[in-house]
Amino acid sequence: TEVFLPEGAMKTLAQRALMDASLARRLLTRSGMPANIRAALFLHASPRQRMNILRTAEALALSRPHIVDQSRIEAIQTAIDQGDANRLTAHLSEALSIPHATLYSILGETSGAMLALALMAVDAPEALVRQACRSVAAHNLGVPGGVEDVIETIRPASARWLMAAIAEAAASSAPLMAETLTLSEATERRIA
User: What is the pLDDT of residues 156-166, one digit of tens each?
Assistant: First the structure.
């Protein structure tokens, strides 16, 4: 039997869980967890849980018109082609209105799914998403499965909602993250 936790307590636990995979896994098994809190734990979710989170994001996203900024997509393409993780993050940070350091730490996730999600959120073409994620997983053959799940499951509006939920949780736990990880080093290794 699960003990009821108020939403505030779940948010606090979710913030701690960003740096504690074991806690995140336990929280993700709870029933009745609000979608935004579950989304914040996307980084630690199993493939099945990630698919559920992606489906929830898709169901919750409002279909609002969104104008694709072609010049931004071209700048992102250039940053990817040059392996410039800092510039790529700067373009994504500006487009998604997520602080640079917060986004940089999020993009350091090893499967490439977070990078795919961020790129989908700015309406990057699927080919560009795959190209960027291949460079993240250069030691693997092809594109990691989590990336394909993101590409096949989510639309840009849903990706923007999910990125906002993840960024909100990551930003609120930034002091914890800064103590355990040098943001630039972690992401440079994975994106470059």
Answer: 888 888 888 88
